[in-house]
Amino acid sequence: MNMKLAGIALSGAMLVSGASFGMDFDPKFYLGAEAQANKYKGAKEVKITGLGTIKNPDNKSLFGKSGAGASAFVGSQFSEYAGVELGYTVLGGAKVSYKQPGFEKSSFKTKSRNMYVDVLGYVPVCEDIDLIGSLGMGRLSTKVNAKAVGPNAAGVVETTNASLKSSKTGLRLGLGAQYKVTPNVGARFMVRHQKGNQFVKSVNSAGLGLFYQF
Fold first, then answer.
1. Where are the beta strands (DSSP E) in 43-152?
2. 142 closest CA partner among 16, 36, 43
3. Of 166, 160, 123, nearest to 142 (Cα)?
4. What are the domain boundaries of the chain?
5. Residues 198, 166 contacting (CB under 8 angstroms)
6. Are 114 and 139 in contact (CB under 8 A)?
7. What single-letter DSSP state applies at residue 61?
8. Quick one: how far is CA 158 from the chain centroid?
9. Which of 22, 31, 85, 2 is nearest to 212 (CA)?
10. How much is the pTM?
11. β-strands 66-77, 28-42 pairing
């Protein structure tokens, strides 16, 4: 499934929800930003052309266990109980040195980006507090840049660089709550799970964000 199909599906859900919850609600548009703490389930080995198979000697993820991240998002709460949101997330990468047969020194670094679209459901607890549930799709892209220093076939020491990228669209689930500090400014806390790609298999995150509602 690609992001275009996901967008069509979620747009349909938005229209159905709007009709179901009534048309007398004045839609509220918002934008915001969020800081995240992420926990990764990463691959234990990567095959890179020219460098062979890179493995973690401890049989653990090559991409680390955790990292920070940040998101920017825009959305619309089109009824008291439902809304839709689009966002872009930058995830903290990893820099790893590793031992590779035939090379004197080897290392690689990664960076991941995520574009997403979510349908949000709101459950009012009181006038200023809502519980939130989200369901959506995200496209997680991870790029690996590797470098190795070692002798070539002629015995001359040289540096070999290689890179590869994996992108995949996966399901996202989230739970959280938001608090309206003023009629226009709010804060929210969300925990989420998203399926990943060939390198980062999945991401669990906890995020604290601020938003401005028009």
1. 45-48, 52-55, 66-77, 82-91, 95-98, 105-124, 129-151
2. 43
3. 166
4. 3-94+110-141+169-213
5. yes
6. yes
7. -
8. 36
9. 31
10. 0.81
11. antiparallel
Residue type present at position 161? N
**Which residues, in sequence order, are CB contacts of 61 under 8 Å at separation 6+?**
40, 41, 42, 43, 44
Q: Which fold has domain 3-94+110-141+169-213?
A: Porin (2.40.160)
| Rg of the chain in Å (alpha carbons) | 21
Residue-wise pLDDT tens digits, 54-101: 776 666 777 778 889 999 999 999 999 999 999 999 998 877 777 777
- When pLDDT is cut at 50, 70 and 90, the band that residue 32 belongs to is very high
Phi/psi for 209 (5° steps) reads -135, 165
Residue 122 has pLDDT above 80, yes or no: yes
Residues 6 or more apart whose Cβ sits within 8 Å of residue 23:
none
What pLDDT does 25 receive? Answer: 67
Query: Which residue type, as a one-letter code, is found at position 81?
Result: Y
Q: What's the burial of 152, exposed, middle or buried (CB within 10 Å: 0-12/13-18/19+)?
A: exposed
| Widest pairwise Cα distance in the chain | 77
Q: How far is CA 1 from CA 97, 102, 185, in A?
A: 35, 41, 35
Average pLDDT over residues 16-26: 52
Residue-averaged pLDDT of the chain: 84
Residue 118 has pLDDT above 80, yes or no: yes
